[in-house]
């Protein structure tokens, strides 16, 4: 904390002299953030709006006071936690507060202070802080690695037998080696049949049936489009004939696939 008379001397000099902003900044720079104990005489109070130079005092009160035994007027900021205290003051009330110097208002030529609460330092239980010897002596936990698949040589057998065990009874994490994985494990259904093999087993009648349905589906668009164009006065006969021919081919393909399926005995 800085001495009261030092602060008052600087404030007295600032109130008596017209100084440039740079000169004021030079004088107050050593005192910014410094805490001192001063006696004030309350004059008025107003709610603080907007952002203050220190966010601690947002939504608080801005008090206009004079330093006791002097004519120096100051602005004293209270945080919102001290709103009740600021509202209880009456004009002429004298009080002492620990304040920190925040800034100097060159327009109104008033120093700006902020009320601070000096709290005792937080004590830390030494038992909660581990010593360096405890940190060094604590075991390093290793997670075991289990390799799936057949072991091909003696070095792999030794590696499997010498798994690192965790010193604490806790769930183990495993790593899977894809290099030693069993072959043909991917793309297999629950019956043990490869998906690609199933695709290759599609019969010829089924393929013909699919092609026939596709032809019928496409022909519908040609026929509908040709009909719309015809009613609009356009010559759509070629497209209509193509659509009809495509539909005939589709229906014929579907019928042929049905006959082939019946002849082969597939249901």
Write up this protein.
This protein has about 270 residues and is of the alpha+beta class. Strands 1-2-3-5-4 form a 5-stranded mixed beta barrel. The longest helix is centred in the last third of the chain and has 28 residues, at about 205-230. Helix 7 (about 205-230) runs antiparallel to helix 8. It has helices at about 5-15, 20-30, 85-90, 130-135, 155-160, 195-200, 205-230, 235-265, and strands at about 35-45, 60-65, 75-80, 95-105, 110-115. Mean pLDDT is about 75; it is low at about 120-130, about 145-150 and about 165-170. It folds into 3 domains: about 5-115, Nucleic acid-binding proteins (OB fold (Dihydrolipoamide Acetyltransferase, E2P)), CATH 2.40.50; about 140-180, no CATH class; about 200-265. It is rod-shaped. The N and C termini lie far apart (about 100 Å).
